[in-house]
Design brief:
Elements lengths: L10 H11 L42 E4 L26 H13 L5 E5 L6 H17 L6 E5 L6 H10 L2 E3 L7 H7 L5 H21 L22 H21 L14 H4 L8 H7 L16 E7 L6 H15 L3 E6 L18 H16 L4 H4 L13 H8 L6 E2 L5 H5 L6 H10 L7 H6 L4 H4 L3 E2 L12 H22 L15
Parallel strand pairs: 1-2, 2-3, 3-4, 4-5, 5-6, 7-8
Helix pairs in contact: 2-3, 3-4, 4-9, 10-11
Length: 512
Amino acid sequence: MNSITDSTYTTQEKLQILADAAKYDVACTSSGSSRRGKKGELGNAEACGICHSFAADGRCISLLKILMTNHCAYDCKYCINRSSNDVPRATFTPEEICQLTIEFYKRNYIEGLFLSSGVLKNPTYTMEKMCETLLLLRTKYHFNRYIHVKTIPGASDELLAAAGYLADRISVNMELPTQESLRLLAPNKTMQNILNPMGKVQNTISSHRIAVGKSAYMDRSRGNQFLNQGIFSDNSKKIFREKLESQNMDAKLKGGNAPTKNDRNVFSDRENEMYNRILTWENACQLAPRDMSDLKRSFAPAGQSTQMIIGATGESDYTLLQTTQALYQGFDLKRVFYSAYIPLNEDKVLPQIGTPPPLLREHRLYQADWLLRFYGFQAGELLSEEQPNFNELLDPKCDWALRHLEQFPVDVERASYPVLLRVPGIGPKSASRITHARRYGRLDFDSLKKMGVVLKRAHYFITCGGRQMYHTPIEQGYITRQLVTVDKNDLWKIRHSGESYSQMTLADFGIK
């Protein structure tokens, strides 16, 4: 452990240490909140009010993203801030974080705050300090902008409720997709401690939305209402609930809690028991501090998210995507983030230092995540036990289309919205424009290009009035070779972006 004490550092030095320590947490994006500005307060949290800047590896740096402390009582093998590492340690006081946030905001360096922390002493003590910081920002400094807080699994329900009222978005990082990988790399964490607060937050958000006359589920893209087979459809949610009930019943009949082969990729039976103990809206109101009622705030209006590390353990893309789908359906998460593991620590169970991070694999998982959230796909359609990993040479949608050529070509003048979404090169906006425009006349390939269709991918899979754009064979080998050629420049950029990986520094903001 480093012997230098916090009192030795200036605020500037603390900022450099703790901002750098937070760069591996990617779970921060724009808010999704719609809170307008108020007289006497600083800023607002409108849905589109946060400007984004991105580092070379695609990570968002528009928020002041810092740790409250990088002291940590845990010894997670993958973490640079683990207790056994000899690194400079620092801790911000709540007042220091508030002053930094306000001063950065006034100078237009940031548009909000992302606050995370190592585990100082214990989870409850750490969360108490984080909630104290948020309460000061909201009351003493009247900061009305977007705040995203990463809660500490194992903290008390009272502090979890307080954080939900004070922040716009809450995240509980899963880090690793299975109990086995947590046991191997993070012995201080359990899946139960991670999923319990997720369930409480989800239930409280749902109850609050119902209380104000909204749907119990988080708002999604409008196009999802037409995707009856998508993961957010009523039918899919019903199937998911029935599957959980069936798993729990099987476990009771067997007289044990061991997960089956299929359960292992999602949640074990013991973890599913948390649904019987989730926090209700009334209990959350009672648990929150009394002065919270004066704020009259919604509970986590931008929902909750989580992050999973890619490449630190041997799980397949199929396991990761199954877990992602289960999180969306079981906990109504707003986003699941993926972070390509950058080898930092010497350990025989981890990739060797110097091994390049799997940025291309992370990229493919993000593409698949979008297919789940906006295109009506399910994890079982994109991957399987026979094909557990994504094709690095093709994006997941093209790969799926090539494995289902019997469904193509699609006539854009007749195909339904869900069918159009499955065509490579056609996204939600262009599919919506096609369905609208064909009411008033015939379509041709020039008009499709103006609507935003990426014809260099789509023309292999579509016809206009029964005619192809070019006379090309609908043959898997031929189309694969053409699509790989189209994507080779993008693949080169992704592969080589890891060679110069770095987080933007304070100097990039003009701060010296």
